[in-house]
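Input record (Table S2, row 386):
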Amino acid sequence: MSEFSESDERRTLRKEVARLAKGYGRDYFVGQARSGGKTTDLWLEIGKNGYLGINIPEEYGGGGGGIGDIAAVCEELAAQGCPLLMMVVSPAICGTVISRYGTEEQKKRWLPGIADGSSTMAFAITEPDAGTNTHNITTTARRDGDEWVLNGRKIYISGVDEADNVLVVSRTEDARTGKLKPCLFVVPTDAEGLEYKPIPMEIVSPELQFQVFIDDVRLPADALVGDEDGGLVQLFAGLNPERIMAASFSTGLARYALDKATAYAKERVVFKDAIGSHQAIAHPLAQSHIEIELARLMTQKAAALYDAGDDMGAGEAANMAKYAAAEAACDAADRAVQTHGGNGITQEYGMAGLLVATRAGRIAPVSREMILNFVAMHSLGLPKSY
Ligand SMILES: Cc1cc2nc3c(=O)[nH]c(=O)nc-3n(C[C@H](O)[C@H](O)[C@H](O)COP(=O)(O)OP(=O)(O)OC[C@H]3O[C@@H](n4cnc5c(N)ncnc54)[C@H](O)[C@@H]3O)c2cc1C
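Output record (flavin-adenine dinucleotide complex):
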């Protein structure tokens, strides 16, 4: 077996997840989105089968695998038209941070629910005024006796309505002087003082984004995950998995768009032969196939580096993978629409909705510009531009 292919076990995992997801499919996902429903059935089924918590340590109810495994699950779901954003957030970001930095008590309390899907955890870092510049976040935790008191505002937080808890990136009060000293708190979504409001988005998805208002939310001492002073390292522990998962989310969606476009190009005849016989249709699809495969390869490399414990190497690869995957997905969606002609804009064929869904990958969780900044600076040694 060549070292460039995934293990047999990983490939079997992909097949099993694809089979399960196919039973739900795009119609289920879009139907739930348009009717205000949720994907809870699918979520719990992947949980029950051990796929949702595949990266969580076995002793806390998970599968003991790595980011490469959960990224494969995420990609295969999306490739069947069921992209689950909360997989990026709950098991991959929150699950990783708690597995790596939580106390024994915290791991026992939160990981089993994250793994089996019975207790989802959202993740909140983005703030209205700080935006991309997370060093400027102002959500602040103040000590009050044995407790913490949290205040702040978050925006675009996915799935708060489906989550029991949200992992909130905050900073400690005495660290307001400039340098980011983040610290992470698990906040129950029903905590007194926490409110959330949906943001009307143009994405066709059952998973919604929210504004979150945190006003004097009181938390017990053990809501703080990890060390008050080790926040930055702990935060980064969650960000590489986030990028690898976002890349997989994008390559999965890209595969879905390309599969649909290819099938349509084989069937639709307007002149003598199927439209796929025209190079104007075939070449862009072939280009997408190449771009998707390249992005998948880099995603797998990033996951392999991360799972081998090389956080620095994984950082560069995860950024590049996320960039490549988002670009590949946007182009694949656009080409899929074009291949479908007028049908590309109908709800029946569902291609146009992919334009926005894939477009989000250029913005979140980290924008393409910030990845280019990262690569210019860290990979090429160019001066920091911001
Ligand atoms: C669908 C979706 C789901 C999300 N889910 C979550 C979630 O669950 N939790 C969470 O915390 N956040 C979430 N987000 C937020 C997301 O991470 C942010 O939208 C993203 O980080 C960009 O921040 P911003 O929207 O404030 O853009 P801004 O920071 O206002 O940036 C605007 C534009 O300016 C560019 N820009 C800014 N600074 C620079 C610079 N120095 N150099 C070059 N260009 C620059 C950016 O790249 C971008 O194109 C989600 C967003 C979306 C769209």
